[in-house]
Structures are given as structure tokens and as C-alpha cells.
């Protein structure tokens, strides 16, 4: 009991963070969160022309910017729904395909596995701008231009997601799979009932990365979608800027509403994300 008590006290001492560490964390958090805070402050403050040069630190608690945004832009709800459908659909397909491919590269043995994995990983070095022209040609020939499928289908799998899942699944004990196969489980049952439950932290992290990336995606939706009602939020908010005059209050309001789903999505999956980071640090 004495040994256990000493270990608990030692663990408590190790877990304490010195006051300097807390200061660093607080200052870093304030710096990181201030742009988001400033965005919402400006969105809640009536602004019609250029925003003031000095940052507004306290909102006026007015919904005037949001009212003018929704009254003057009939497609804003369409943009929100388009972005939500695109980001959620791509996230679901990423979780399915990336985890399946990661499992195959991590646990299955087949000829050319390492070569295929490194070839797949090498595609991360190709800039996305290089693939825009061939992607547009293929999408145009399929007749998908100005259709949200033109944005969803190219994003159903990603080399980074496959790499992330492969690295995590490699750390899972193979004895569990063998035990499931001895009990008569098929390969799909092993993947669904053994691998996926153990890989939830990595799946949560992958879902957050994928959702945020495609919610904020701008270049390809700008090229693939042409009619205003089919725009995503990023493209639509960018088009709120006028040629001769810009209502910055409306832009702040649109950007603030666009940030809310990302914040909500992170809070929903934050437990899996933080657990994945923690477990990765312990295993590493």
C-alpha cells in the first residue's frame, strides 16, 4: 500500500503543470482564438463600409448584419446545405474507404503491398493545382460540371487518410484478428467487429480533418460549380464582395455562420480526436 501511495503521489507530481506552463498555454490559446473571436465580434456589430482600423473588442450585440445577409442573398441557405451535404458525404466515404485501404496495407499480405503503398503515398507530393485540368476534363466528359457530385466524387478517398489509418491499425494486436478468424468470422466481420471499434480514435481524427478540409475547400468548387444556387459557402461568401462597393458587415456575418458547423463538428468528435492524439503519443 505504501508503494502504491508513493506511485500515486509521484504520478500527481508529474501531472502538475508549473505556473509558467499555464501562462504559456493561456497566452497561446488567446492568440489562436482571437481571430475567431474578432470575426464574431464584427459579425455582431453593424458595419456597412470598411471595418475600423483598430479591432473591435466588444460586440454591439446587433443582428443587423445577419438580417441584411439573409434578406439580400436568397441563395445563402442553398450554399449552407450544399457545403453540408458535400462535406458530410466526403467524410463518410473517407472513413469507409480510407479505413478499408489502411486495414489492407496494415494487416493483409499480398504481392506488391509495399510498392503500392509507397506509390500511393508519393501522390501526396503532387500539388493539387497540377490535377485540376485533368480532373476538369474527366468531370466535364461525365457531364457532372455544375453538379455537387463533381465535388463529392473526387474526394471519396485520400492518400493521407489511408496513411493515417494504416499507421494506427498497425499498432493493433494481430491476436484479436486471429481469434476472430478461429471463431469463424469472415474478413469483413473481422474488419467491422474487431478493427473499426479499436480504431475509433483514428476514425474521429480522420473525420475532423476531412470535414474541416472540404468545408473550407475553395478552388475546386469554384471551378466545378457555376450557377449561384449550386455554390458552396466558401465560394458564395467570396462572391459577396462587390466590384465597386463591399458590405463588410454582411461578409463577417456570412463567415461567422460558415464557421459554426466546423466548431460543432469538432465538439462532437473532440473526445475521439483527443483520445487518438493521446494514444498515439503513448504508443509512440
Summed up, the helix count is 14
Overall structural domain count:
2
| Radius of gyration of CA atoms, rounded to a whole number | 24 Å
CATH class of the largest domain: Mainly Alpha
Mean pLDDT: 84
The poorly predicted ranges are 1-14
User: The CATH topology of the largest domain is what?
Assistant: MetI-like fold
How do the helices and strands follow one another from N- to C-terminus? HHHHHHHHHHHHHH
Shape: globular
Compute the number of strand runs: 0
Structural class: mainly alpha
List the helices and strands and how they pair.
Layout: H1 2-15, H2 19-43, H3 64-72, H4 76-107, H5 113-122, H6 128-141, H7 149-152, H8 159-169, H9 174-182, H10 187-198, H11 200-215, H12 219-224, H13 233-238, H14 248-283
Helix pairs in contact: 2-14, 3-14, 4-8, 4-11, 8-11, 9-10, 11-14
Walk me through the structure:
The protein has 284 residues and is mostly helical. It folds into two domains: 14-66, no CATH class; 74-239, MetI-like fold (Orthogonal Bundle). It has helices at residues 2-15, 19-43, 64-72, 76-107, 113-122, 128-141, 149-152, 159-169, 174-182, 187-198, 200-215, 219-224, 233-238, 248-283. Helix 4 (76-107) crosses helix 8 and helix 11 (200-215) runs antiparallel to helix 14 (248-283). The radius of gyration is 24 Å and the shape is globular. The two termini are 31 Å apart.
